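USER:
Try writing one entry.

ASSISTANT:
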Amino acid sequence: MSFSFQKPRTLLIDALGAPDQSGGMQLVAGEIIRNWPTNTSAGRTVVVGPSWIKKLVISNPNSIFIFWPNKNPILRIFGQMIFVPLVGVIFRAKSYLALNCVISPLLWGRDTTVIAHDWRHVMRPNEFSSFQLIYRRIWKSSAKHSQKIFAVSSKTSNETQQITGRADVVEWGLGGDHPAGWNVNQQELVDLENNILTFGLHTNKRPDLVISAFLLARQENLIPESSRLTVLGLNLENADPNMNQLAEQFPGTLYFPGFVDSAEYQNLMAGSRFSVLASSDEGYGLPVVESAYWGKRTLVSNDSGLKEIHGDLVIAVAPSVNDFSLGIASMWVMNKGLVINNKSWKQAAQELHDIVLQQQ
């Protein structure tokens, strides 16, 4: 009689590319981990990530959480380049999945998978600092050397193929059913019916364009005086002085809450009359599907690629104050009632899981 013992196969997931308050990157990482299959062909899953993701990891009985800080960019790069491969050696990982497009050269030649979210640093390098460009240059080499590569949209897939020369990019649509779990406050939704929501986390969101267009629409009586604009993610302490002047000039009309907690974000997205995403370039645009879940289209810029990605879920206009002002006026009277069937994050995580582990 003979006995054989096979060590459990281990998948290592690198979630260090999703710092807290990183917007879409954080949401994608969180939903993938939250919905990662418990019945997996990997004997165990090791997740290296920041503290905010720990509770999602430990809810999966087959997963192990390893902490590494990622708020500081230097620590994040060290973690992805050195610490993740080291953890892989300790746990004898057979496969690696990076939830962004960074894989350490120490892992080239191994069974690795990366996710390409966007190539904005290639298309619009002037929107990034020198340090950000250095970090993002790692994306191209990682995309070329990873065994498998996923892209979050058709637009990102096309760009990935052009930039890397790879023809095997997997176009992988993100989930969009997470608003079903939101616990929105019905009274706040009523109070927000005259609010317009936009974003100012990064310069490519062009909050100054949206603010100017909104104020012009009010000045021309295209929208009522009761209208209000909320700009999320823009910290007035670090903003252009003009932003502070506008906030003081239009109190109660322009609202700059900076970063908000999940509950406030969910109420704002669900209750606002509509959202404006004036980005110069997007890889996917999660606010579009979140707004669509609540029956509303999103006003976007026609140079963002969002029309290509989301079709009828958006209204696209030229990135000028006049065009956005007219767009805001049109959106104000547009009826709600958009009905869509968003792909579930459970399905998205399962698709990712199956391809990542198909060679094990």
The chain has 14 helices and 13 strands. Confidence is low (pLDDT under 50) at residues 1-6. The two ends are 28 Å apart (CA to CA). The longest strand covers residues 44-49.
